[in-house]
Amino acid sequence: MNTKKFYNHLMSGVSYFLPFVVAGGIMLAFAYLLDVGNSTAETFGSTTAISAWLLETGGIAMSFMFPMLAGYIAYSIADRPGILLGIVTGVLARDGGSGFLGAIAAGFISGYVIVLLKKATVQFPRSLEGIKTLLIFPIIGLTIAALSMILVNALVEPINSGLNGFLTSMSGTNAVLLGGIIGVMVAIDMGGPINKTAYFFSVATLTAADGTPIPSVIMAACGCSAMVVSTSCAVAATLFPKKFSENLRGAKIGAYIMGLSFFVEGAIPYVMSKPKQILPSLCIGAGVTGALSAFFKVTLSAPIGGLETLPLVSNIPLYLLSFVIGTAVAVGLIYIFIRKDPDVEIKEE
Fold it and tell me: Could you tell me how far CA 155 lies from the centroid of its own chain?
C-alpha cells in the first residue's frame, strides 16, 4: 500500500469521526460551563438537570470516536463488509487501552482482512454469494480481526501506563517543565495514547488527596496548549494558502472551531499531508504554551479546555496570552519549514 492510499483511507475515517469529537466535546464543555457555580463540588458538570444531560449526551458522542474512525477506515478499504469489523475492533481498541493508534490499526486490519477473504472466496459459485456476505465476512472476518486486536492492545496499552508513570514521577518537580511536557504530549500524536495520557493525568490533578475538587495549574497548561494544535494549522492555512491544497484550505474553518474548543484532531489532515514540517512546529508551540501557562500560575477548574471554559480560568488574560504566543510560535515554525515548498495546487482524492 502506497502512502497516498494510506492517507486517503485514514482521512476517510477521520472525516466520519470528527463530528463525534466536535459535537460531543462542545456538549461536555457547555455542561461544565453551565455548572460553573458548582465548580468546587464533586458533582461539577452534572449538578443541574441540563448540565447532567449535556454531560451524558456529550460523553456518549465522544465514546463513538474510535469505533467510527476504525469502521470507516475499514469501509474505505473494503466497502460495506468492512464496517462491522472496523466498528467492533474500534471498540476493542477503545476499551483495551490502545486508543487512537489502536483504532487506526483496527481499521486497517479490518479492511485488509475483508480484502483477503474476498480474494480467498473469489472462486465460490454465485449461489454462495449470500453465505459470503452473511457468514464468512462477518463471522470469520470478525474473529480474525478481533484476535489481532489482542496483540495491538498488548503492544500499545503499556505505552499509556508507562507515560502515566513518567508524569507521576515528575509531578513534584518544576511546574513550568511539567507544563511544557504536557503541552508537547498533547500535540505529538493528535489525540492518540500520548495525548490521552497527558489529558487524564491533568484531569487527575483537579482532585485533592481527600477527594475535594481543586483548580489545577497542570489542567490549565493542558487546556491552553491543546487549543494551539488545530488552531495553528487553521491560521497557517489562512496566512499561507498557496502552501496548502484546496481540501486543507477548506478544512480550516473546522480546524478553527476544533482548536478553539480544545480538540487537537482538527490538525490530523494537515499533519498527515506535511508531517515533517507541521508536527514538530505544533509540538514546540504547544510546549511553549503549556510552560508559559504554568509559569503564570494560571489554573483551570474544569476537565476540559477551550474558549467555552474561560469563566473557569483563574487569570483569563494570561491564559489567552500563553495561547497567542504558543500559536504564533507554531505558525511561525510552520512557515519556516514549508516556505521552500512549491506553490502548486495539490489534488487530493
Answer: 20
Task: Please name which of 345, 222, 198 lies closest in space to residue 293, comparing C-alpha atoms.
Answer: 222
Q: What pLDDT digit, counting tens, does each position of 38-80 carry? A: 766 778 778 889 999 998 998 898 889 889 999 999 999 999 9
Domain annotation covers residue 143: no
- The structure's pTM equals 0.71
**What is the chain's percent helix, strand, coil content, to nearest 5?**
80, 0, 20
Supply the pLDDT for residue 348: 43
Separation between Cα atoms, residue 206 and residue 303, nearest integer Å = 8
CA 174 to CA 183: how far, in whole Å?
14
Whether 12 is in a domain gets the answer: no
pLDDT at 110: 96
Structural domain includes residue 345: yes
User: Number of folded domains in the chain?
Assistant: 1
Distance, CA of 325 to chain centre:
22
Q: Residue 154's CB: how many other CB atoms inside 10 A?
A: 12
pLDDT given at position 344: 47
Give the number of other Cβ atoms within 10 Å of residue 333's Cβ: 20
Query: How many C-beta atoms surround the C-beta of residue 23 within 10 A?
Result: 15
- The parent domain of residue 332 ranges over 171-349
Q: Are 185 and 163 in contact (CB under 8 A)?
A: yes
CA 89/CA 150 separation, integer angstroms: 10
pLDDT at 173: 62
Q: Which of 59, 122, 113 is nearest to 86 (CA)?
A: 113
Return the number of other C-beta atoms located less than 10 Å from residue 210's C-beta.
Answer: 6
Residues 259, 297: contact at Cβ < 8 Å?
no
Residues of the chain short of pLDDT 70, as ranges, are 1, 39-40, 160, 163-164, 168, 170-173, 208-212, 342-349
Q: Biggest alpha carbon distance in the chain? A: 71
> Is 29 a domain residue?
no
Q: At what angle do helices 81-96 and 99-120 cross, to 10 degrees?
A: 150
